[in-house]
Amino acid sequence: MTAAATPRSFQEIILRLMTYWASKGCAVLQPYDMEVGAGTFHPATTLRSLGNKPWAAAYVQPSRRPTDGRYGENPNRLQHYYQYQVIIKPSPPDLQELYLGSLKAIGIDTDLHDIRFVEDDWESPTLGAWGLGWEVWCDGMEVSQFTYFQQVGGHDCKPVSGELTYGLERLAMYVLGTGHVMDMPFNDPDSAIALKYGDIFRQTEQEYSRHNFDQADTEMLFQHFKDAEAECHRILNAEQPDKAGRTIIMAHPAYDQCIKASHLFNLLDARGVISVTERQAYIGRVRALAKACADAFVQTEAGASA
Amino acid sequence: MPDILIELFSEEIPARMQARAREDLKKLVTEGLVQAGLHYASAGAFSTPRRLTLAIEGLSAESHAVREERKGPRTDAPDAALQGFLRSTGLTKEQLEVRDDKKAQVYFAVVEKPGRKAAEILAEVLETTIRNFPWPKSMRWGSGALKWVRPLHSILCLMADEGGSEVVPLDVDGIVSGNSTDGHRFMAPGRFTVTNFDDYRAKLARAHVVLDSADREAKIWHDAETLAFAAGLEVVPDAGLLTEVAGLVEWPVVLMGRIGEQFLHLPPEVLQTSMREHQKFFSVKNPKTGRIEGFVTVANRETADQGATILAGNQKVLTARLSDAAFFWDNDLRVAKTGMGEWEEGLKAVTFHNKLGSQAERIARIAALAREIAPLVGADADAAEQAARVAKLDLRSAMVGEFPELQGVMGRYYALEAGLPAPVANAARDHYSPLGPSDAVPSEPVSVAVALADKIDTLTGFWAIDEKPTGSKDPFALRRAALGVIRLVVGNGVQGSQLRWLELGNIQNLLFKLNAQENGDGLGGLLILALLDRANGEFGLKLTPQSYKVPHELEEHRKGRNYLDFKALVDGGYKDEGDGVLAFLHDRLKVFLKDQGIRHDIIDACLAMPGNDDLTLLVKRAEALSATLKTDDGANLIQGFKRANNILTQAEAKDGVEYSFGADPKFAEGPEETALFNALDQAEKIITPAMAKEDFTTAMTAMATLRAPIDAFFTAVQVNSDNSIVRRNRLNLLHRIRTICGQVADLTKLDG
Questions:
Q1: B394 and B290, same structural domain?
Q2: Same domain flag for B488 and B564
Q3: Fewer CB within 10 Å: C terminus or N terminus of chain B?
Q4: Is B374 within the bounds of a domain?
């Protein structure tokens, strides 16, 4: 495949990735409608990597990492950013080649650049998940995470899912040659109304940075954390069958509460009110939720191994 | 004699695992072949990021036939015996032979194992090796169950001789062996077939793969030095990085770039660490300025633009990374210049260990210890305390947050920026040392004091909360801390008892523990009070009962029996009750000295002497004794001493007296006995002043001169004479031998 012309905007890179992975047979999903720390949290990855039903999906996931907020001043740190996520189960034998094809699709000419697969084992203590793989380097810059899932929510992944995660802003800045994320063209720079990344996100970065670091009501957050935790367990322990005699395991609604708890924990962490020792305990509580949701999901039709 | 070529081709193998994997592949396959009855001339293993390769030369074409005979039970033995024999041989009764053996008939099993083809054996051995390969971490992929470090794509397995080469058939979970491999992922993708190792290696080279990691390392280093030299610069050697980088590329292409002017003010350690950890760059130094001014990166391919795009990309990433570093540095300097108070405050919130408190609490304990230790190591007490208070402040700095391995190094820079004197700043850098057995030992007095205080607080702290190392478990690296204490004390010749240090460390950690457990009233409060009084009275600390929740009323109970009991206990000083910290230090000292070739019984002999809480003294004793025992006179002296001691001990036990009245030369009979008296007098003249100076070598050398007179005495003289006066005198003489020879070490503890 010859390299395509260089894209001109952030959104063009997203569109090209969408087109590319759609052409490779992935279902192009939309972002999950909740606050998450990474694309992995989307149930399309976390839950669907369990059980033995084949699966192939690609999607953009807005991700929030409150501690990374820099009031929009840092050239490449944001508390809200986009991840592009691809998940294929079972992992195809040519996944590396497919991935390299996606780089070409967004204008990275592998004849001119130095692409490397550098060991990086992935572990998510909050999801009770781990996998082996690499961070992919392009000329020394990490452009993606490439992981073969081995375990999620404490369950062995059989078959194994292959997961690709692209940090979109960083990748796009590299491809577009932008020095500061806020200067990056979001839509085509020749558009009648040309918008830069900063036109859309500078103000929100400021607002959320202040909120995350100084203003988020910690007492309320602690309470919400407890509520989400309790609700997650309650949903999973609901009486079966329901009044109409239907047995419906509510793995997804319960998992929503797990996602909430995880984000609340991240906010509390950004507020600096969780000590080093407490930290481990909170991570353990979120992991317990993730595990309970995984336990429930594998009993459902979508998550079964039969 | 065929040659073998094996290649296991996979997705990228982590660089750090490749060297070990090469060795494991070679070992497992060759051992398997040898166990199956084959032999080979030589074997060599190779690795690139995508392949593990093994070449074996001169393998025997087949294994020898083996004929094995086993004798079984007699034919008239119970059936159970026969059944057992059949089970163990795997034969049926009909296959057994019956032979005459000593008047009875006996079953014999004759098992003939025919020779097997090498290819057949190799296929089995390789499959077993692949299925059981000892990767540090391995994984499954796709729908399969096979585990490998990353997905395994192909197996090449060839057997080649003069007649040509053949694929050794093998099928591991659907991966079928063949005779082809793949070239460089980007520069020469596509499979090609090979016939033998030489062909393989040559075709790989044409396909832009350098098979041997040593060749890749050599090329990288040569090209890096050449590039740097041409620019009047030099590459900073980094063997670990070189190995790692060689494991990341199949076709190394070295590129050199410059660090932006705006970053050259950063400390060299920051530049080096950032470049090495994040980018795997080598640092390039300008010998004229002594600064790190450039970098070398190693790409995995050649490009039409001679690497210009790759270098520009790397440069850009470096600029972003160093901008971060510069941001941290500038922020940190602001805090440092205002005296680092912000970090001091921040460390109150950082837990060291949930049972041992915050870093701030630990620092206070270390500061008190550093003060106590200072005079013994020749340091100023105020400087030592100040150094202890600032040594760990950099843990709160942004730079150490990003690069934990720079702890201490940054501490020194920031302490200097804060206007602190050089010895204090150096202690911040050096107080973690020595980290490993080969790490340099600090020698500046203030650094030594803080380094010792740091380790003694660690040891007494974890002892106080009962977290001692057991077996292979040592999660808090207490063995390393103990070895650190030993090397700091012995390496700097620090003299004096270490018990006081342990006592202070122990009191402080006990107080912390009690404070967390107790309400401060009742008996617990009185114990706290006794410990506080000891800490303040004996060690000059200024701890207040209030900060330990001890109520005022309780202080009036200082005349009460309970307080006085505690006080007596506490005033007794640090007691090493069998498995205390001192015993642990002694234990580690044995390991330390054994590594220097000093036998464990020599150390035991020295440990039995008083003053064993002074490690320097202990080591001096052990070294002197060890040196003496290596001489003929020394070794024989021990025999003479033991003989004297045995006779004397038996006599003392039998007679119920101690023969310590002193022997009188006037009762000496014969020249040997007189000579011994004289020799003892002579030796004592040397030994007594030597011992006063703790010059154990001179003392031991003088003792060794006693060997000949003692031997002569025992040859010529019967100690248990019929004449009771003579006997008593001789026993008293033996007592003199025991006393004189027992001054450096308890020689009865020596083996043999």
A1: no
A2: yes
A3: C
A4: yes
- Which member of A90, A134, A140 has the closest CB to residue B314? A140
pLDDT at A2 over 60: no
**pLDDT tens per residue, range A48-87:** 999 999 999 999 999 999 988 889 988 888 999 999 999 9
pLDDT tens digits along A245-254: 999 999 999 9
From start to end of chain A, where are the E strands?
27-28, 55-64, 80-89, 115-119, 122-124, 129-138, 141-152, 155-156, 162-167
User: Domain for residue B162, yes or no?
Assistant: yes
Number of structural domains chain B divides into: 5
- Nearest by CB to B310, from A96, A113, A162: name it: A113
Which residue(s) pair with A27 in the sheet?
A: A57
User: Could B139 and A114 be called an inter-chain contact, meaning their C-beta atoms sit closer than 8 Å?
Assistant: no
User: Which residues in chain B are contacts of A110 at CB distance < 8 A?
Assistant: 186
**Angle between helix A276-297 and A251-270 (nearest 10):** 170
**pLDDT digits over A277-290, tens only?**
678 889 999 999 99
Q: Which residues of A touch B326 (CB under 8 A)?
A: none
pLDDT tens, position by position, B336-356: 999 999 899 988 877 788 788
pLDDT of residue A306: 66
In angstroms, the separation between the Cα of residue B140 and the nearest Cα of chain A is: 7
In this structure, is residue B257 part of a structural domain? yes
Give yes or no: residues B34 and B183 share one domain: yes
Are B142 and A111 inside 8 Å of each other by CB? no
Same-domain check for residues B271 and B185: no
Q: Quick one: B661 and B543 in the same domain?
A: no
- Tokens 């060297």 — which residue? B19
- For residue B586, tell me if it sits in a domain: no
| B92 and B184 inside one domain | no
Contact B335, B329 (CB under 8 A): no
The CATH number of the structural domain formed by A10-209 is: 3.30.930.10
Q: Which two tokens stand for residue A89?
A: 């189960």
| Tokens read off for A123 | 């572990």
Which one of B149, B300, B351 has the shortest CB-CB distance to A277? B351
Q: Which residues in chain A are contacts of B141 at CB distance < 8 A?
A: 90-91, 148, 160, 162
Instruction: Verify that B199 and B270 share a domain, yes or no.
Output: no
**Which candidate from A117, A119, A140 shows the least CB-CB separation from B313?**
A140
Q: How far apart are the C-alpha atoms of B156 and B5, rounded to whole Å?
A: 7
B224 touches B23 (CB < 8 A): no
Which residues on A lie below 8 Å from B314 (Cβ)? 139-141
| Domain match, B319 and B242 both | yes
Q: Which structural domain range is residue B677 located in?
A: 632-749
CB contact under 8 A, B151 and A93: yes
Predicted confidence at residue A131, as pLDDT, reads: 97
Å between A75 CA and nearest CA of chain B: 8
Put simply, the chain B residues between 76 and 95 with a CB less than 8 A from any chain A CB are none
Low-confidence ranges of chain B (pLDDT < 70): 576-577, 752
Provide the β-strand partners of residue B473.
Answer: B470
Q: Predicted confidence band at A276 (pLDDT cuts at 50, 70, 90)?
A: low
Domain boundary (B533, B551, B571) is at: B571
Domain over A217-297 is classified CATH 1.20.58.180: yes
CA distance A137 to chain B (A): 10
Q: Which of B140, B184, B262, B353 to mutate to test the interface with A (most CBs of A within 10 A)?
A: B140
What are the Cα distances from residue A67, in Å, to A263, A285, B323, B698? 11, 20, 19, 67
